[in-house]
Specification:
homodimer; 514 residues; dopa decarboxylase, N-terminal domain; Aspartate Aminotransferase, domain 2; Aspartate Aminotransferase, domain 1; 3 domains; decarboxylase (chains A, B); PyrdxlP-dep_Trfase_major (chains A, B)
Chain lengths: 514, 514
């Protein structure tokens, strides 16, 4: 394909993309395909000779599209949203045009410096402490995913404590590794466990309270006991917006619990909820974040930027680069030796990197702070509408306090296992989720969870996509908003589908007291 | 920006991309900018309100473009090429349209299955052993970079030996970690050292022979000595196409040296040269690869596919997934439990992943095997032309046998340090590179290296981009071909520039006998 043929197919792609986004809500959100559906439609061997691009695009439409899960559909409410916006998409196009690899400053000065500037913009939009800005000892960097951000933070934490023990006690990493402990909560993302597993280090999962919040007291008690047992705490992850419930950990309490130990690296995973901090009304959730070592959030989730674009901010860049820099002869440059530039490959596991700051720059400018805020407000407003509908149904209850644009609900145990209804009522309306969970006997929980799986199964037959979660043993349905193709009309539709499914699982029966 | 405004700016982007690729050779390949050039041109704070996209694109052209290193220019001969082709670019556009995240099969069935099919295609195009195909116990997966591919291979290797010692000796990872050794050569890519550093494990760098090849005998001797010293070898990286010289390690010899020890994971890094294996005449370099544990190469380097797209093939998928899988409740699906599908997040460090098989599919089909072969042939032919010009200049010599499309040359020591010329001549023409290096006295090497840095500096003033390398102490200039915008005309131009610079550093002087 030469430039002229590209013009033809490129313009056609632009039209296809525009039409797709205009009509995506009409497509089935989850494809009706069985495993290995594609194998039967695509030759097992690569083509020997060039095939026409017209045929390729025809096959894309006929074979691939029916197997796509439409993340951008307003009816996609599973997992977390993945960012899309038109300026971001055009940013990706220009990045593909340049098709460079910015591992060193000299490999792409504009990409490197635009990254520094745009991550600083993000830090300011979120109200991060100024020690996370690039003109301090810290700064931000774009990683592929929050998994990567968390991973390199844990590597930096391990390097820091290993250096300390080397310098102060003459011990090497292998001497202390068996005693190192990383901490997560029972609501932390699996990437913390994965990072520790990959590094061959121990991770302890701490319990959260009835609101799925990791409390400072829990951390303080655990740290004391673990130190007493001769262990060496070196990393803790606090989450702002947990994966299942979007709960917010007690960051100030955790900071306080760790403050006497400079070898504990506090990492904040705000992969999802970080984007909400562009709105001042959510900023109170950031309390304590000025005192942590690293903070990550994914503009590619809820800030209209295409995947991949996870931002990691660290208080001390050297802690990261000391742990990650390997500089062979062929990667050394004068500008770097003189300390004039950042080589972002020293901030990540990989060497190569795409020009991801371009889509970020296009998006932040084309939306502006006010446009980003509007997107967050719209998503939260839609979630609130859904909660209002839900709250009017006597058979359903929120399992967790709804934060941001995430809603977790389930059938009330009294509906699924009626004999518990009296004890429930005796507990009174003031009973917290937690005491109710305690009161809930095993049979009631089991019955409720079984009905919930029935309900989920039924909803999955319909044309919306949402996922399950389990919160302290309670199976729930997790509805995540954030697509800019969602609307109040879609929420009303989704609600009517869900209510219809609930009707099938537990018919509205006046005799059941809930 | 709505769909209609996107149409306008999207079509404009298509025209801009086509024009860029038509004219990229006329742009200065390395930008004339100083560190922090961008800071002065972009506001320190993000915009409060939306800015027009016309203004954004104007700034892109006025501010960003002057700071871009043009990797797609035919005059870019630094590092390794980074892939570009029009079908690949359109593949990225459609992937950006769908903007999904395929961490589980259900998250994007078509993306998952297309990945399985296209990496199988690649395995067949390269002639990989069928045990690397997905219908065996092995298979391929797309990673972001070869650094990632190598890293997860090392993690799998460590997991395998740890499991062995757990099962057979009741030892845990911390018991054996201090004794684990990974092996690389002095020509291996820095990602091996980085992977070991990140994992906190020891890496030994083995010497290569005079052709920069890691020999089986070297490996065998080292393994014996290390085992005798109580160490536990667990990972070795053999390279096909080393970073500095594109040399090819003695894979059959290395396989033989390791064959008695099933705990040594043999990883082949063919990041660059793997693409050349689409041509049968290079296949002899693959000897021994049927017997290794993992093989990685980057279609995003030399196979016309946009970054990021690194393929990792493993003989035993379970070795990889056992080491990497962490499956919380919210990521469990029925299809996965039943073993019907692959969830590619279990094959990598990250959870999230882009739809990268689409650009691969578009490119492989639109070029076909014959088109891919032609691209490799063209690059190699261009390198051969460059070598012919070089060989006619009595002041220059190849430092390494030229492999694939990479050329490393330097000034002859006799030119830089004339008093060595006699001893050189006495050595006779048959002297190998190695014996010459040995004969080369310290002063001659120092003088030659100093002149080489002068030469490099001069060349860097001109409008071509190539990089330096150091090969067994000899500084050389490394010219890497592979851009599809390169041509014989450009090579003639580049050669005339280089010759002009050589003239300045060491004028052609009939009195110097070379």
């Amino acid at each position: 394909m030469d430039a002229n043929e590209f013009r033809k197919h490129g313009h056609a792609a632009i039209e296809a993309i525009a039409e797709y986004m205009e009509n995506v809500n009409d497509l089935p959100v989850v494809p009706k395909v069985a495993p290995n559906f594609l194998q039967e439609q695509i030759p097992a061997d690569p083509p020997k000779h060039p095939e026409s691009f017209d045929q390729i695009i025809k096959d894309f439409n006929d074979i691939i599209m029916p197997g796509i899960t439409h993340w951008q559909s307003g009816k996609f409410m599973a997992y977390y949203p993945t960012g899309f916006s038109f300026p971001s998409l055009i940013g990706e196009m220009y990045a593909s045009m340049l098709a460079g690899n910015g591992f060193l400053w000299i490999c792409n000065p504009a990409a490197t410096e635009l990254e520094t500037i745009t991550v600083d913009w993000l830090a300011k939009l979120l109200g991060l402490d100024e020690r996370f800005l690039s003109n301090s000892q810290g700064g931000g960097v774009i990683q592929t995913t929050a998994s990567d951000s968390t991973f390199v933070s844990m590597v930096a934490a391990r390097h820091r404590i290993a250096t300390y023990y080397q310098d102060h006690k003459g011990l090497n990493l292998h001497d202390i590794a068996p005693k190192l402990v990383a901490y997560a909560s029972d609501q932390s993302h699996s990437s913390i466990e994965k990072a520790a597993k990959v590094l061959g280090l121990q991770v302890k999962v701490l319990p959260t309270d009835s609101d799925y919040v990791l409390r400072g007291e829990t951390v303080a008690e655990t740290l004391e006991a673990d130190r007493h047992a001769g262990l060496l705490p070196f990393f803790i992850c606090a989450t702002i917006g947990t994966t299942s419930a979007a709960s917010v950990d007690d960051v100030p309490g955790i900071v306080k619990a760790c403050q006497s130990d400079e070898n504990i690296w506090i990492h904040v995973d705000a992969a999802y909820a970080g984007s909400a901090m562009v709105c001042p009304e959510f900023r109170h959730h950031m309390q304590g974040c000025a005192d942590v070592d690293s903070f990550t959030f994914n503009p590619h989730k809820w800030l209209l930027v295409h995947f991949d674009c996870s931002c990691l901010f660290v208080k001390n860049s050297l802690a990261l680069t000391n742990a990650l820099t390997v500089k062979p002869y062929y990667l050394r440059t004068k500008a770097q030796d003189q300390g004039l530039v950042r080589d972002y490959s020293d901030y990540q596991l990989q060497l190569g990197r795409r020009f991801r700051s371009l889509k970020l720059w296009f998006t932040l400018r084309n939306y502006g702070q006010s446009g980003l805020q509007k997107h967050i407000h719209d998503s939260v407003g839609i979630a609130q509408l859904f909660i209002r509908r839900l709250s009017n149904d006597p058979r359903l209850e929120l399992v967790a306090k709804a934060h941001f644009a995430l809603v977790c609900f389930r059938l009330k145990p009294a509906v699924c296992y009626p004999c518990t209804s009296n004890s429930q009522r005796n507990g009174g309306q003031a009973a917290s989720n937690d005491s109710r969970a305690t009161n809930e006997n095993g049979a009631a929980l089991q019955a409720t969870n079984a009905k919930m799986l029935d309900l989920l199964h039924l909803i999955q037959q319909s044309d919306i996509f949402l996922t399950k979660a389990i919160l302290h043993g309670k199976v729930c349905i997790r509805v995540s908003f954030g697509s800019f193709k969602c609307s109040p009309e879609i929420v009303e539709h989704v609600w009517s589908v869900i209510r219809g499914c609930v009707d099938q699982v537990v018919p509205l029966d006046e005799s059941i007291v809930v």
